[in-house]
Design brief:
- The chain is α/β, with parallel strands linked by helices.
- 45% of the residues lie in helices and 17% in strands.
- The strands form four sheets. A six-stranded mixed β-sheet has the order 1-4-3-6-7-11, with no helix packed on it. A five-stranded mixed β-sheet has the order 9-8-2-5-10. A two-stranded antiparallel sheet has the order 12-13.
- Belongs to the AAR2 family.
Length: 378
């Protein structure tokens, strides 16, 4: 993502579009942001200039605002941010919290907000212009994220952080009983000296948990083996957690955005799990052609947005995405019940991946574990 100096950057825009966004576009006003703070919205970030007080002409809809400040020791703080669905002509006002070194989510006094809203034209020179040249890409990246789904996934705190906050937890009663039941080992005594850390309640992403069981109750050993080879049952169980099947793709998009722009590894782990699950299913590919057609579109866009230095690792080694896609393409190529249009779409996607990354999808029946380089997870 590009980094420039906000409020000093010129954005080229069609005059008619500029007039429309000037009237209908939202504004995000943030007070007292320190000079040189990294500030971003969606796919672009800047270093704040001295007069910076926010962003104007934001198209209505979902946007991700993020930042990374500098603490009192001069160290850059971990990236943090929040998602907000802007309404037409909305003016959202926040303030920088110098103690926490972040944008506060506390509501400002009503008179302060009213004064800023009535004086928004005078603030205009201090507001950076939304980077509209990236808006089309941004829309595609969040096309399945509804307001309802977003409210289910974001942390209760509202802040999405690249580094989880942890708090020390007291020892559990089970641990205490184990200590009393037998002498402690040297390793356990060393562990006792370390604080028991857990994610601070309300700060973690509320991602959809995987089903605790990968096969139905009463399944025979043969059925358990079948469900382990084809996790369609797991996918079907997971889909019951959503209002509609496409919400799974919305969570996939949410996780990718949190990783791409929020640097959140927790989200990347979930993204990898969902990609792996979707690619591993066999019966689901035949039964849910629409879901898989949409999945191919989402995944192709994600692979096109990965930063260039990250792509180098992908091209140099066989990775989770490549191995998973080989399995998916194998199913689509060999199962006669796969929808013909879906199979053709997958073949075109497969060719574009080969052209771009030089990924080899020949001999899909080959055992990749035996012949490929060492697998490196994405």
């Amino acid at each position: 993502m590009a980094v420039a100096n906000i409020t000093e950057e010129t954005i080229e825009m069609d005059q008619e579009l500029a007039k429309k966004l000037f009237v209908e576009g939202a504004c995000f006003v943030v007070l007292d942001v320190p000079l040189g703070t990294e500030f971003g919205i969606d796919l672009k970030s800047w270093e704040t200039a001295e007069r910076f007080k926010g962003v104007k002409m934001i198209p209505p809809g979902l946007h991700f605002i993020y930042y990374s400040g500098t603490n009192r020791h001069g160290d850059v703080t971990p990236r943090a941010g929040f998602m907000h669905i802007f309404k037409r002509s909305e003016i959202l006002v926040r303030k920088w919290d110098s103690e926490k070194e972040e944008i506060s989510d506390k509501e400002l006094p009503e008179e302060t907000v009213s004064r800023i809203q009535s004086d928004i034209r005078n603030l205009d020179p201090c507001l950076g212009v939304y980077p509209y040249d990236m808006y089309g890409r941004w829309l595609k990246l969040n096309s399945y994220i509804s307001q309802e789904l977003l409210s289910q996934l974001v942390p209760l705190s509202g802040q999405i952080r690249s580094a989880l906050e942890y708090t020390a937890s007291p020892s559990t009663p089970v641990t205490e009983r184990k200590r009393r039941s037998r002498p402690s080992t040297a390793e356990e005594r060393e562990d006792d000296l370390l604080p028991q850390l857990s994610a601070t309640p309300g700060t973690e992403l509320r991602l959809t948990p995987y089903p605790s069981q990968s096969y139905p109750d009463g399944a025979s050993p043969q059925e358990i083996t079948r469900h382990s080879l084809d996790p369609t049952y797991t996918l079907d169980s997971l889909l019951t957690s959503y209002t509609k099947p496409s919400d799974l793709l919305g969570e996939l998009q949410f996780c990718f955005i949190c990783f791409l722009t929020g640097h959140c590894l927790e989200a990347l782990d979930q993204w990898k799990r969902l990609v792996r699950l979707l690619c591993s299913c066999q019966a689901a590919v035949c039964r849910r052609p629409q879901l898989y057609s949409q999945f191919l579109d989402v995944l192709e866009l994600h692979l096109s947005e990965i930063p260039e230095d990250f792509l180098v690792d992908i091209v140099a080694s066989v990775n989770l995405v490549y191995v998973s896609l080989r399995e998916l393409f194998r199913t689509m190529q060999t199962d006669s019940e796969v929808d013909g249009r879906l199979r053709s779409k997958a073949e075109r996607f497969q060719q574009r991946l080969t052209d771009k990354f030089e990924w080899d999808f020949e001999d899909l029946d080959r055992d990749e574990d035996d012949e490929a380089p060492v697998i490196v997870e994405l």
